């Protein structure tokens, strides 16, 4: 009995230390007044937040051309989603409901892992100075680490444009298959089609879910309910990633895979492999922008 009590006390103490470490070393996103500073020194040279020099420079790199690309991708993706959804309803058979549920679960898990892989890659490697992909695709990742709440000030298009873009090739191929294949072929591949469609939905919504995980005020009750039940990425769970040097908990759709990937040291192993082969160290560009404090 005493052993169980001591064990519970030990786990509580470890949890308290971890929670305190997160709060002391991540931006105070739930403080609407001084959300980047907890001391006078941090007000003069903020470690993060909208007044951070690096964050301001990165925000200014968002171009009209990038905005146009995101807008086109959003509308194209939504049209393809609606069209494919209509085709799926047309070909759906009630006895396949278990297939759809299983496909949804697999789609969520795949999307969560994919979000972690892309997030880890963009966070850890390459530079904003790279042609085309640097300012257009890596810039938001650098800005997000030194001003996490910037994503809450982005509208739907800026938040979701790139994720919607990633799903367009898959959705376009699916639409083409519905138009050109026979009903028999469609039925034979229906399970796979449901999986890909639901995966595309979850991938497209990942950054919106990510945005909600940084929104501490005014969220719809149904979103908070999904977060509280860890159906989508919870706010405090994602805060672990925002403790510098941002080297863990990369999965941002549901976050279900963060704990097991952390336990098997999945990301450190990949980083060790890449550093061993190339000599390049992870997050050097991320660190460079974080140092531009004044």
Please write out the topology.
Layout lengths: L1 H23 L15 H5 L8 H7 L4 H28 L5 H28 L8 H14 L9 H25 L2 H6 L1 H24 L7 H8 L6 H5 L18 H6 L2 H13 L5 H7 L4
Helix pairs in contact: 3-6, 4-7, 4-9, 5-9, 6-14, 7-9
Report on this model:
Residues 108-285 form the Lipid desaturase domain. Its main location: membrane. Belongs to the fatty acid desaturase CarF family. This protein is mostly helical and 294 residues long. It has 14 helices and no strands. Helix 4 crosses helix 7, helix 4 crosses helix 9 (190-213) and helix 7 (156-180) packs antiparallel against helix 9 (190-213). The longest helix has 28 residues, at 64-91. The chain is globular and about 65 Å long. The protein starts with a helix and ends with a helix.
Entry summary:
This protein is about 70% helix and about 0% strand.
Distance between the termini: 56 Å
- Oligomeric status of the shown chains? single chain
- Overall geometry comes to globular
Helix/strand class: mainly alpha
Beta-strand share of residues: under 5%
Spell the H/E element sequence: HHHHHHHHHHHHHH
- The total of beta strands comes to 0
* Fraction of residues in helix: 55-70%
Rg over C-alpha atoms, rounded to the nearest angstrom: 21 Å
User: What average pLDDT do the residues reach?
Assistant: 87
Unreliably modeled segments = 1-14
| Annotation field: number of helices | 14
Biggest β-sheet description: none
GO molecular function, one term: oxidoreductase activity
Domain Lipid desaturase: 108-285
Family: Belongs to the fatty acid desaturase CarF family.
Main location: membrane
């Amino acid at each position: 009995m005493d052993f169980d009590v001591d064990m519970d006390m030990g786990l509580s103490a470890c949890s308290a230390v971890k929670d305190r470490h997160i709060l002391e070393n991540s931006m105070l996103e739930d403080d609407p007044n001084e959300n980047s500073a907890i001391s006078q020194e941090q007000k003069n040279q903020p470690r993060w937040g909208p007044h951070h020099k690096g964050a301001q420079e990165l925000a200014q790199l968002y171009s009209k051309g990038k905005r146009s690309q995101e807008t086109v991708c959003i509308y194209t993706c939504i049209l393809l989603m609606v069209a494919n959804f209509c085709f799926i309803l047309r070909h759906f058979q009630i006895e396949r409901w278990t297939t759809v549920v299983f496909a949804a679960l697999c789609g969520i898990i795949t999307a969560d892992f994919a979000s972690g892989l892309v997030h880890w890659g963009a966070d850890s490697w390459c530079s904003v100075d790279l042609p085309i992909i640097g300012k257009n695709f890596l810039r938001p990742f650098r800005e997000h680490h030194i001003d996490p709440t910037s994503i809450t000030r982005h509208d739907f298009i800026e938040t979701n444009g790139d994720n919607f873009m990633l799903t367009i090739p898959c959705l376009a191929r699916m639409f083409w298959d519905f138009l050109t294949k026979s009903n028999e072929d469609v039925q034979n591949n229906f399970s796979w089609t449901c999986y890909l469609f639901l995966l595309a939905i979850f991938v497209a919504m990942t950054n919106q879910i990510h945005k909600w995980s940084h929104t501490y005020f005014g969220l719809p009750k149904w979103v908070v309910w999904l977060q509280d039940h860890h159906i989508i990425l919870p706010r405090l769970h994602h805060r672990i990633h925002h403790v510098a040097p941002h080297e863990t908990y990369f999965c941002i759709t549901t976050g279900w895979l963060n704990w097991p990937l952390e336990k098997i040291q999945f990301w450190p192993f990949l980083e060790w492999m890449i550093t061993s082969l190339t000599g390049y160290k992870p997050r050097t560009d991320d660190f460079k922008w974080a140092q531009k404090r004044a």
